[in-house]
Amino acid sequence: MNIIIASDHGGYELKELLKKKIVALGHTIEDVGCDSLDSVDYPDYAQRAVDALVEHGDRGVLICGTGIGMSIAANRNRSVRAALCHDEYTAAMSREHNDANILCMGARVLSPERAQQVLHTWLTTEFVGGRHLQRITKFSDI
Hints:
CATH topology: Ribose 5-phosphate Isomerase B, Chain: A
Strand order of the largest sheet: 2-1-3-5-4
CATH class: Alpha Beta
Radius of gyration: 14 Å
Oligomer: single chain
Number of strands: 5
CATH superfamily: Sugar-phosphate isomerase, RpiB/LacA/LacB
Order of helices and strands: EHEHEHEHEHH
Largest sheet: 5 strands, parallel
Strand content: 15-25%
Structural class: alpha/beta
Number of domains: 1
CATH architecture: 3-Layer(aba) Sandwich
């Protein structure tokens, strides 16, 4: 899969770590920023990621301090189903039931180890479809 990844300054270090995990799982990465610990506005990077995802990506990963801002910003686009996940269960459910195409995480909320576990679960869990497809088509461009 082609994974679009972005962060603000609060998520920069975790983003750099997770990029290695994504590559180790056999995926390609398109990093749309940010590129340092210098303060930036998370909505700008969420929008870059959403634009790339809609144009040519398979899934996306967004990271900020809590993950909340990125998830709010990303979900403004009807093609996006961004899920803020804190553990493997929420990551699995976001994929199985909601076909989430963007994973949001908080670098100040999760340890690097937990974030890698959440990412792994999210990337390896498939959408089950069925009654769940009917539900997400009510609010999303599928």
